């Protein structure tokens, strides 16, 4: 089975939309938006990456989000869930981080697979996969007036999506694994790397600093060595 003859089940795309939309809804509650603001932020976060993928990069007809009603139904369900449980969820930032990490991996794989399905190569597949994974988060941050997370030093986010895509594309094209198995492995790698960076406080550093660890992490390490 070659890369052009397989299509990931729609479940992967819808699951990523749902998870990302939930993070948007909870962020809206955290910032005390009204119901309209919550719905708009859930929509932008949930389908932003897919719209950028289909509308700007792949341009393979009308974006799937506008063709299939299930995308909007999924966003509506996420917004409703955010309304029902968001006030409790905002207490746990760890929960939001886990949901976001799961969505990151799923969207990365979906973007890479859709690109391969059009007959494009490795580099475009990785690029679109990363943009697909991070696009919703970028729109969410812009809508709330913050510098997007992908542009700031911090725990691995775009980097985790990049590694997930770099794992998926070779597995998909050269390993002989079932496509579903390759997808699940890549999602697991992305999720694991993102969670590990949060747990161990691994983060990227500003360009004026050298090394992968931030100055805070480096100072903590120096402090531990000195104590």
TrEMBL record:
Domain Glycine transporter: 11-84, 98-171
Pfam families: Gly_transporter (PF03458)
Any coiled-coil regions, as ranges: none
InterPro entries: Gly_transporter
Topological type in the membrane: Multi-pass membrane protein
Keywords recorded for this protein, A-Z: Cell membrane, Membrane, Transmembrane, Transmembrane helix
Primary location class: membrane
Entry GO terms, CC: plasma membrane
Top-level taxon: Bacteria
Spans traversing the lipid bilayer: 6-26, 33-52, 72-91, 122-143, 155-171
Subcellular location(s) of the protein: Cell membrane
Family of this protein: Belongs to the UPF0126 family.
Protein name: Trimeric intracellular cation channel family protein
Organism: Fundidesulfovibrio putealis
């Amino acid at each position: 089975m070659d890369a052009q003859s397989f299509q990931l089940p729609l479940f992967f795309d819808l699951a990523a939309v749902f998870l990302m939309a939930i993070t948007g809804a909870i962020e809206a509650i955290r910032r005390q938006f009204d119901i309209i603001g919550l719905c708009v932020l859930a929509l932008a976060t949930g389908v932003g990456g897919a719209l950028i993928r289909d509308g700007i990069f792949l341009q393979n007809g009308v974006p799937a989000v506008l063709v299939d009603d299930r995308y909007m139904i999924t966003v509506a369900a996420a917004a409703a869930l955010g309304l029902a449980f968001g006030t409790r969820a905002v207490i746990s930032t760890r929960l939001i981080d886990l949901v976001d990490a799961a969505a990151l991996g799923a969207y990365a794989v979906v973007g890479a697979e859709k690109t391969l399905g059009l007959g494009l190569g490795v580099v475009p597949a990785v690029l679109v996969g990363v943009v697909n994974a991070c696009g919703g988060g970028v729109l969410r941050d812009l809508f709330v007036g913050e510098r997007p997370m992908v542009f700031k030093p911090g725990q691995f986010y775009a980097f985790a999506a990049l590694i997930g895509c770099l794992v998926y594309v070779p597995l998909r094209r050269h390993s002989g694994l079932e496509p579903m198995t390759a997808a699940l492995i890549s999602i697991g790698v992305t999720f694991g790397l993102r969670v590990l960076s949060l747990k161990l406080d691994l983060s990227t550093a500003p360009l004026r600093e050298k090394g992968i660890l931030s100055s805070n992490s480096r100072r903590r390490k120096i402090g531990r060595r000195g104590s």
